[in-house]
Design a protein that fits this description.
Length: 219
């Protein structure tokens, strides 16, 4: 079953039900280990790592239009600063709708221009708080110029072959991880968890830490 049929369709309706779909949560205060099949899933077929040699890769699958992703992002950013040197976090904007593809190209354009670090949160705020209409290339370019980017350079990055290639790669990666909701975390090509599965935002990061330890010990 493809990712289009499973999940990224019809504008996602805000993913209103995602918080209610998961299994029982894991409290940070609990000493019990996360339960496979409840707080996380193990991929039947491990994926080949595409990152730096020796790094444990963590992928966040998200959408700028998803309010749950917006809520998750600050905690994920804080958590990322605690990661050991052998762990890397990479955000992956997903989606197959026309507007999602525009936002994917925005994400990858900012990344290629070295502006993702300071403007990633600003994109979320533009859509989630300011309620700006970023549903066309013209509107997105105007927003980018308003943030100090050169219009011509941004346009070139937005429409580059590299950005188009990344669109396809991100969809294939989400499908390979069987990420059927966002936000979700894929770990080391072997595991998947999410706030929905884990029972909340803090719990998802506790589970992610556990999965990193499993990956490190090759369990």
């Amino acid at each position: 079953m493809t990712i289009q049929r499973r999940f990224f369709n019809a504008g996602l309706a805000g993913l209103a039900g995602i918080a209610a779909v998961g299994a029982p949560g894991l409290s940070q205060a609990q000493s019990d280990k996360p339960v496979e099949g409840k707080q996380f899933l193990r991929l039947a077929q491990p994926l080949a790592s595409a990152g730096a040699e020796g790094k444990i890769e963590v992928f966040e699958f998200f959408l700028y239009t998803c309010p749950h992703c917006f809520a998750f992002d600050p905690a994920l950013t804080t958590w990322s600063k605690t990661l050991a040197p052998d762990v890397s976090l990479r955000r992956i904007h997903v989606g197959v709708g026309a507007m999602h593809k525009l936002h994917q190209r925005l994400f990858y354009a900012l990344e290629s221009l070295g502006r993702l670090g300071d403007l990633h949160e600003q994109v979320f705020k533009a859509l989630q708080i300011e309620k700006l209409d970023l549903s066309s290339e013209k509107a997105i370019t105007a927003w980018a110029v308003g943030k100090g980017l050169d219009g011509a350079k941004f346009g070139a990055a937005f429409n580059s072959f590299g950005a188009q290639t990344r669109l396809g790669q991100s969809t294939k990666l989400a499908e390979a991880y069987r990420a059927d909701g966002v936000p979700a975390l894929g770990v080391a090509g072997r595991f998947l968890t999410s706030p929905s599965m884990a029972g909340g935002i803090p719990q998802a990061l506790v589970v992610a830490d556990h999965l990193i330890k499993l990956a490190r010990s090759k369990s």
